[in-house]
Amino acid sequence: MNSRTLLVLLVSLLAYPAAAQDTLNLYSARHYQTDEALYDNFTKATGIRIQRIEGREDELIERIKNEGASSPADVFITVDAARLAQADALGLFAPIRSKLIEARVPAHLRSTNWVAFSTRARVIIYNEVTVTPDQVRTYESLAEPGMKGKVCSRSGSHPYNLSLGAALIAHWGEAKTEDWARRLVANFARPPKGGDTDQIKAVAAGECQVAISNTYYLVRLMRSNKPEDRQTMEKVGVVWPNQASFGTHINVSGGGILKTAPHKDAAVRFLEYLSSDEAQVHFANGNNEWPVVRTAIIKNPELASLGQFKADTLNIGQLAQHVATAQKVFDRAGFR
Ligand code: FE
Questions:
Q1: Strands 49-54 and 93-94
Q2: Mean pLDDT value of segment 13-21
Q3: Ligand 1: centre distance to CA 132 (Å)
Q4: Share of the chain above pLDDT 70, in %
Q5: How remote is the CA of residue 219 from the centroid of ligand 1, in Å?
Q6: Model confidence, pTM
C-alpha cells in the first residue's frame, strides 16, 4: 500500500465512522398517533430510516440501562421535564452539539443534554356555575380555605404534578411549597385518581369545582367528534395561573441523544428536524402543543382560542433539579 492509498483509506474511514448513518433507533415514550407522519417526513427529507421502539418511559429507561454500552438506542424522546431529567440524572445522555438547535430553541427550553420541542401549560380549570375566575387566579388560590372540598387532582406522584411542584420549589422554596401542598390536599373533594381528562370531566359534572390540567387535554376535548366532549368544555372555564407573578407553569416534550448512540450524526439531524418549522407546526396541529420555535405558524383554531398568556420562563434544566425534592415534599404533605 503506498502512502497515497493509505491517505485515501484514512480519509474514507474518517468520513464513515463506526456505523452507517442511514438508520436511527428511536426509543419513544410519546404515544401520539399523529407523530407517525412526522417520522415519515423525516425519512423523506433525509433518507434516514427510523426504527422505533415504543414503551412506557420507565420501561425504556430501564431497557437502555440494561442494554448498556451495546444499546442500539440513538435518541430517547418523552413528555415531561421530570422524566427527561430522570434519564439525564442516570447519565444516559450525551451533550447535544448543534448550532441550529441553539439558534432555534429558546435557551430556557433546553439543557446541555436534552432539548424541548413542544410545550404545554398547566392551567386551572373551574366549573363556570359554582366558581368565578377571580377565585382561582393562582396556584396559591387552590390551597385557600375557600376552596375546601372543591379541588380534584390526579396523583401527586405523576410527573406532570412533580414538574409543577419542582417549579414551585424553584420560585417559593421547599417550605412554602410543602405548606401549599398540605393545604391543597386538605381542599380535595376526593382522593387523587385518574388523568387530567378525568379531572376536567369531574369539574364539568360538578363532582368537584376546580382542577389543574395540561392544555392539550382541553384542546383535545374541544376538537373531539363526540358531542359530550365538546359539552364538557362548555361547562368549564380556563384560567392562566400566576399572570401577575412568575407566569403559568410550562412543561415540555423533548429528547436527548444517548451516550452510547451508534448513529450520533443521525441523532443530531433528527433533533434538528424536530426543531424545523415543518415539525414544529406538526406538534401544534397534531397534538395541540405549542411549538418551541416562534416562527412556526400553526393552524389550530381551538388551540389558538385559548389565547395568549405569560408563561413561566424558568429554565427547564433548572426546574428538573428540583423534581426529586418535589416528590419528597409531596410525600410529606400527603399529596400522593
Ligand atoms: Fe399527557
A1: unpaired
A2: 52
A3: 27
A4: 94
A5: 12
A6: 0.89
